């Protein structure tokens, strides 16, 4: 079932969550509302609120027990911006929120589990949306940098791995284009790309801030999670088919990856196709280029669904991880790569016997991840150093609310104790980690 010694010594096994999905307590202890809290009560009527989630804010010990059960090397989680600063503007922090994140980080360090901390996983403080228009407004860049600075000052002595933004493609497209994510704006296509532009500049500013003021003594690393599909030509010998596939990748992954990992600018084909694409000055290109210490990549079934506005161009979506890793290597000068998000959905009625998810995980890990990474490392000289299963717990699944589940641990949202019950997939992932236990800290 599982090939031993396939993964290299020191390969890292982790698990992830997003704050809004699992914390609950959206108004508790002085927390401010986020764009998602507002969206839930206006656009997702009938979805109820995140109060029904796994309530990680008050049940931290149960989350830690779940992590202990799995035996992971790292835990990738996000900080709720409005739990620290209710209006989003940095002032005196909300003491209870600060206490929660300090307790979480301290508990992970005590267990020798590396905290991989995401600063922004989609839950922009509502006040910033209401007052400034959210990510449409360049003013948010400096406000985000102030928030990041506080996090570095407060947690950076224990956090060595930072993610600035989780999947900016989805923030821009679904938050300000299709409207299926908060803040739910069905904006003009120009708005989508101006939001993306601001997200890139925000990431770069925070990276430089950390690099200059914190990295010399905190010794941490920073990246941004970028998600993508992989698309293959119908005919691998047809230059037109190959060109169409390349253009599709550039419009998704290249949109954000090329400025950060490439030459500091958008891909040439994207600039040719989209006349209204914002432009970077030469100084901005130099400033943005190289602003990541590793490539954090979100990939897998259901992790990424291109919107209807993005045609497949007659090509074929594929789960060939080795090929997309080679594409990243060739396009972006062989970065170290972390598979930063990978998981499967199950129906809401499925409890602990998530056989479909186990089947998918086995297929992906055995046939895709295992083979791809083994061959990528051995034959292609690609440095893949870790894998993040998504997610630790069942929780609030964005526009799907509670209609689907994605956790390795089952949670009865309506129960009082909200026990974390390991699913079949949790036992399987635990086995994978145990059989490849040569992990070392990042």
TrEMBL record:
Gene Ontology MF, one: hydrolase activity, hydrolyzing O-glycosyl compounds
Organism: Nothoprocta perdicaria (Chilean tinamou)
Sequence similarity: Belongs to the glycosyl hydrolase 1 family.
Gene Ontology biological process terms from the UniProt entry: carbohydrate metabolic process
Protein name: Klotho beta
InterPro entries listed in its UniProt record: GH (IPR017853), Glyco_hydro_1 (IPR001360)
Pfam short name (any one): Glyco_hydro_1
């Amino acid at each position: 079932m599982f090939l031993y010694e396939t993964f290299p010594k020191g390969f890292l096994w982790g698990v992830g969550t997003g704050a809004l999905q699992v914390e609950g307590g959206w108004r508790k202890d002085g927390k401010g509302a986020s764009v998602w809290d507002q969206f839930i009560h206006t656009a997702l009527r009938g979805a109820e609120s995140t109060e029904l989630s796994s309530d990680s804010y008050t049940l931290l010990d149960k989350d830690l027990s779940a992590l202990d059960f799995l035996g992971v090397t790292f835990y990738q989680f996000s900080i709720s911006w409005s739990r620290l600063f209710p209006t989003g503007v940095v002032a005196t922090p909300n003491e209870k929120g600060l206490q929660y994140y300090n307790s979480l980080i301290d508990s992970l360090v005590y267990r020798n589990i590396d905290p991989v901390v995401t600063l922004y996983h989609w839950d922009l403080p509502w006040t910033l949306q209401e007052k400034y228009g959210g990510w449409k407004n360049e003013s948010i860049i400096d406000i985000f940098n102030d928030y990041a600075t506080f996090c570095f000052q407060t947690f950076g002595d224990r956090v060595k791995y930072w993610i600035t933004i989780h999947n900016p493609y989805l923030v821009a497209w679904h938050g300000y284009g299709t409207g299926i994510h908060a803040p739910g704006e069905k904006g003009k296509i120009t708005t989508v790309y101006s939001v993306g532009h601001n997200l890139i500049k925000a990431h770069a500013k925070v990276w430089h801030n950390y690099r200059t003021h914190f990295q010399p003594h905190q010794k941490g690393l920073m990246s941004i999670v970028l998600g993508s599909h992989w698309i293959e030509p119908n005919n691998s010998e047809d230059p037109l088919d190959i060109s169409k596939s390349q253009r599709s990748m550039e419009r998704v992954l290249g949109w954000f990856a090329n400025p950060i990992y490439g030459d500091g600018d958008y891909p040439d084909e994207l600039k040719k196709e989209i006349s209204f694409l914002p432009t970077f000055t030469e100084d901005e290109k130099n400033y943005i280029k190289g602003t990541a210490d590793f490539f954090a990549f979100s990939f897998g079934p259901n992790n990424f669904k291109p919107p209807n506005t993005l045609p497949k161009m007659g090509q074929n979506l594929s789960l060939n991880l080795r090929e997309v890793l080679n594409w990243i290597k060739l396009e972006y000068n062989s970065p170290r790569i972390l598979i930063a998000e990978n998981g499967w959905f199950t129906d809401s009625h499925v409890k602990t016997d998530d056989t479909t998810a186990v089947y998918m995980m086995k297929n992906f890990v055995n046939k895709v991840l295992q083979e791809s990474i083994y061959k990528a490392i051995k034959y292609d000289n690609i440095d893949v150093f870790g894998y993040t299963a998504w997610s630790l717990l069942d929780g609030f699944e964005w526009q799907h609310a509670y209609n689907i589940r994605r956790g390795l641990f089952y949670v009865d949202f309506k129960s009082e104790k909200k026990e974390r019950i390991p699913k079949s997939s949790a036992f399987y992932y635990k086995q994978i980690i145990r059989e490849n236990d040569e992990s070392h800290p990042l």
